[in-house]
């Protein structure tokens, strides 16, 4: 196993500042401790974001994924929420955990849904959502959907999104009574894996308590044109048994946020138009 510690520190620095370098200085020793304690055969690092380091490995129970982060609170939250969702069968099993580190079941084939040549059907995705939302206690959520939306709005505003219409729709949605479930909260299709016999599997929850329609939004908005987005909206709502009008409103709340992220100019323009209510 090879690990470029300097590259790891540079990758984590935007999130953790100079503390990233101090943490990386302890990483080799920490890995040695975990390998011994959890009886791991450590493999190569896996590409990850700016908050953690991830390795493939083998465990006595089979292939696994080891994740470590300077943010021990975030790791603890992830572990707690994965255990909440575990009865659904739609998240990786937590094999072991301690401060700042978690060992997860490896998902096979593990293809990101956003990379699949053919996306899951609305019926497949509805079954996935209903399984997720049927597990877990919304009272255990570390945040409410209202709070998470504020975080997303603040980030999108810094990127230049026009959210005036989104905020009005958000207020209308929160004013109307609806079911409350434990939401994944960050269910873009880069956080959904093809799990073979397990079906679709969710990773990296940003769990919150709120309207079940919210977790359906990204599947709809990742359709590349308006016809596909509207088809996904209608078929997913029907298959999942959710209110299509609420799903549509949540899509319009979040479409301007998505428009600031996607790299495809045509898709970005369609999202912005969806958010403006042009179709």
TrEMBL record:
InterPro entries: Kinase-like_dom_sf, NH2Glyco/OHUrea_AB-resist_kin. This is Streptomycin 6-kinase. GO terms for molecular function: kinase activity; phosphotransferase activity, alcohol group as acceptor. The lineage of its organism: Bacteria, Bacillati, Actinomycetota, Actinomycetes, Micromonosporales. SUPFAM superfamilies: Protein kinase-like (PK-like). It comes from the Bacteria. GO terms for biological process: secondary metabolic process. It holds the Pfam family APH_6_hur. Keywords: Kinase, Transferase.
